[in-house]
Amino acid sequence: MALVIFSVLSLLCVGSVTAMIVSRNQAHNALFLVLAFASLGGVFGLLDAPFVAVVQVIIYAGAIMVLFIFAIMMINLRQGLPPERKKAVRVLALLLGGVLLVELILVARKAFVPGSGAGPAGAGEPSGIGHLLFTNYLFPFEITSLLLVAALIGALALSSKKEAA
Fold it and tell me: Among 72-76, 140-144, 155-159, which is the least confidently predicted range?
């Protein structure tokens, strides 16, 4: 039964991501992404990772997607890019695609090396995650909080410029 549920959830996730890539409507893309996040949360639930499943659904499918939909409503994306920027965007997309390919190769190589486990014991539990965040990964955790504060300040600065104009 778990195999059937996994198959349905994985097909739903892949199908919604494919529909998101093909669709040209930004609101539909956001809804397809919500569906992908929700089905991914179901897959995490099948993997006996209830904390990660709940975080996936609440944080990503809930909070992050509300932010995306708010940004879509605030920004007029129908204008498109000016022709001189399209070439730069294509070059950047190819560069980032190459970086992603290298990362995928490194992850795949590590996945097939014997002895490379999923991580320390208890890393999937909330107490284990908290312990890791505040011991081994304290510096990246603090850098992430600084980046979020900087993004918030940037958003406030941009919104105040629009109101003044």
Answer: 72-76
- Which residues neighbour 124 within 8 Å (Cβ) at sequence distance 6 or greater? 49, 51, 52, 118
**30 with 93, same domain?**
no
- For residue 33, what is the domain's CATH number? 1.20.120.1200
Claim to verify: residue 109 and residue 51 sit in the same structural domain:
no
Place of tokens 């958003």: 155
Within 23-117, residue ranges assigned H as helices are 26-46, 50-55, 65-74, 83-111
Q: How confident is the model at residue 55 (pLDDT cuts 50, 70, 90)?
A: confident
Is the pTM for the entire model greater than 0.70?
A: no
Total domain count for the chain?
A: 3
9 and 71 in one domain? yes
pLDDT at 160 over 90: no
**Domain span holding position 136:** 118-165
Same domain, 6 and 55: yes
- Structural tokens at position 34: 């919500």
CA atoms of 42 and 29, how far apart (whole Å)? 20
Q: What is the pLDDT of residue 11?
A: 94
